[in-house]
Amino acid sequence: MPSEILNEKHDDLDKADIFSLGVAMYEPIRGSPLPEEGPQTLNLKKGKLPLLPGHSLQLQNLLKAMLDPNPVCRPSAKELVENLMFHRVLKNAWA
């Protein structure tokens, strides 16, 4: 869950959903589930993503934006569906 939800700030629920979608995309791209706690999880909540070898910088930047700790900085759902990289991710996920 994004930090704002854990801190009971529910002003930007749509952006909390973007964070959750980013995590849901990140795990299979990473190739393993994230631990529920620990340094990897804390880094993720801080917006610090390790490089994902074999994946484009464009994809990694999209994930980083979706997982930004500041909900205002995360893309909107509209911005995601208009992003060509998101179309490629979805196409590969359904292939």
Automatic annotation (TrEMBL):
Domain Protein kinase: 1-90
Alphabetically ordered keywords of this record: ATP-binding, Kinase, Nucleotide-binding, Transferase, Tyrosine-protein kinase
EC supergroup of this enzyme: transferase
Organism superkingdom: Eukaryota
Any single Gene Ontology cellular-component annotation: cytoplasm
E.C. numbers: 2.7.10.2
Sections of the chain in a coiled coil: none
GO MF annotations in UniProt: ATP binding; non-membrane spanning protein tyrosine kinase activity
Protein name: Putative non-specific protein-tyrosine kinase
